[in-house]
Amino acid sequence: MAVKPDWLRVxxxxxxxxxxxxxxxxxxxxxxxxxxxxxxxxxxCFNAGTATFLIMGPACTRAxxxxxxxxxxxxxxxxxxxxxxxxxxxKRMGLNHVVVTSVNRDDLPDGGAHQFKQxxxxxxxxxxxxxxxxxxxxxxGNWDALETILAAQxxxxxxxxxxxxxxxxxVRPQGDYARTLELLRRTRAVAPSVYTKSGIMAGLGETxxxxxxxxxxxxxxxxxxxxxxxxxxxxxxxLAVQEFVTPAQFDAWRQTGEGMGFLQxxxxxxxxxxxxxxxxxxxxxxxxxxxxxNRVG
Length: 297
Fold this sequence. Notes:
Blueprint: H1 15-28, E1 31-32, H2 33-36, H3 42-47, E2 52-55, H4 82-93, E3 97-102, H5 113-126, E4 131-135, H6 143-151, E5 156-158, H7 168-171, H8 177-190, E6 195-202, H9 208-220, E7 225-230, H10 247-260, E8 264-267, H11 280-286
Parallel strand pairs: 2-3, 3-4, 4-5, 5-6, 6-7, 7-8
Antiparallel strand pairs: 1-2
Helix pairs in contact: 1-4, 4-5, 5-6, 6-8, 9-10
């Protein structure tokens, strides 16, 4: 395994604040993708009093070879109290912006869309000024399920592209590149007030030209926000890192994306899907959607 370069080193967190966040999560019996997916920014985010909540988990029905979340073919039944517990955590933590993601639940007819809707509605009730970002799976292409989520009017809908089309079979074998683009396209068509977002991992063997082509594909479906970060191998059993991409290359992609018309491109080695996600509130104020349903508290 290649040695991590200096630019991937992270600062040790202040454990007192981290402990406060973990205490809320433990008290309410909630999962975070920060912990389940071994995110390198967990210290920084917990120290800042934020977290990305993971619903319907912690086990996933897909076993993507890059991901550290546990696999189960038949996970536990959904917990009807989860939306209320999640809303209580958002209220206790005083979050201005919250990110809610989930494992893949291909065992459910709607992929868990109703649970997403219930979570959004519960957060709205408990913390009306909090803006809500959902990071959703592809729902196996169930577009009625997508509309169920959009009916709850999250401010941001994120669905990650993960990698370039050529690498899908190896990196995301149960995913489909065209389906991902279609999900983002339909979101824009059905809910034009919602900001759309996607993200990719670098260092899996993609070329610069392939990344730029992917970015153009995302802009062709009017995707607003793009995140690009370095893939890190969670364990020796997972896909190996093919390259540690330099900060200069990440910055070049940022500049390219901004030139293509993305409203925001967050591109750096440590960037993850919800890294500094709260900055979207500033973006929404600067680029308001001229459609009913957009809210910035």
